[in-house]
Amino acid sequence: MRFSVSGLAVLFVAWGSLAAFAADKPLVENDFYRLIPFEIPKEIMLEAGGIELLPDGKLAISTRRGEIWMVDKPFADPPKDAKWTRFAHGLHEVLGIAQRDGWLYATQRGEVSRLKDTNGDGKADLFETVNDDWQINGDYHEYAFGSKFDRDGNIWVVLCLTGSFSSECKYRGWCLRITPDGKSIATCSGIRSPGGIGMNALGEMFYTDNQGPWNGTCELKHLIPGKFVGHPGGFKWYDLPEVKAVMGPKPAEPVSGSRFMTEAAKIPEYEPPIIMFPYSKMGKSASGVACDTTGGKFGPFQNQMFVGDQSDSTVMRCFLEKVDGHYQGACFRFREGFGSGTLAMEMTADGSMFVGGTNRGWGSRGPKPGALERLVWTGKVPFEIHEMRAKPDGFELTFTQPVDSASAADVKSYSMSSYTYIFQSAYGSPEVDQATPTITSAKVAADGKSVQLVVDGLKAGNIHELTAAGIKSAEGLPLLHKEAFYTLNRIPK
Question: Which spans in 62-161 are helix H?
Fold first, then answer.
């Protein structure tokens, strides 16, 4: 991240002001990222599953109940003057929407459809099936989450297993790409129970999967065409000729009771989770995926990814890097306090993050049955660990503000533990293979913006949980969030 001289001056003034304020009142998340709730009309049960900002400035909201609503003036603050109009109904659990060439594309439970208003009355009157190559059998869990269009014009769909356990009908447990001409391409196997799908700043696709068989905890996974991402329940569909043509032969089945990276070394097609969200510590139901491509309008986290958690009604922040050609990285707490269980997430170019919620099926910390909120940056920069990078002998931490050198150089300011989860067919996993790495030195960079931690006892395949409770900023502020959780699949050479 780069700042101009004048920009740095403004930031230093802001940091000084924050330090003075914090002396009287501890800073909280709302000081930096403010939640603006929408007033949803009482007759609307929103349960947002997809969000899309349209070229005319309206916000399209799809719902689990099969409706699509248009919200006029979505950027009003407060948004009490927003006008709600039902664009479509009678659909089946729309968990993804995207617009292109005057059409609104909807990922329903059983198909990708497209809708259009041809007579200008504000309601869809033309409905077309784009693709319905996968099947459903009525099970509650047979979710279908659809992406925005990728750079080739494809919509990616991740399909939940039947009951989240097995694949009782075609393509359950798979990721498909739906091409502009409506064809499906088998893309990845191994899906269990997705909660959202989205792209990084480079246009690569990722999805969240949830704790259960073959998922020791909730995870962020990279969708690479031809890869297997963990759950073998849908292996039967490798026998389809159209799957064989693009995916090749069925991978070896992982050994239950093993570890993620042990099986990755044996199964070339297997791409293990790139971030594991420690269960309970970082939530219990990973959901929507968004990426900050706003050019700094959302604060200092440009190009980083954000992931919701439906149970805890939170949004987490993720930093990714590549080691040996594979993504891995760290997750951080970011914002709590959403009105319902966070599910749908959408970043817009102005620097807003729209978040839609539902608590049906699984309870949520947010008490409302449904919600729509806009999260905006206040202009104040929180003191946070900005990045956590793996090194051959430890980790490099960068910060959003210069650190106090004395506290940052003191190894007593930090503590670290490590653990992983069992890769198994049984449901979930406890934390296993616990270890206590030793931080032997902490070297502060001359500019005060980064610290090199030398760590004895790094373990590939383990989450490394860092607590930096003793660090202060140069202005004397504590970290807003003191913990970082790095999924160290591979140690750099």
Answer: none
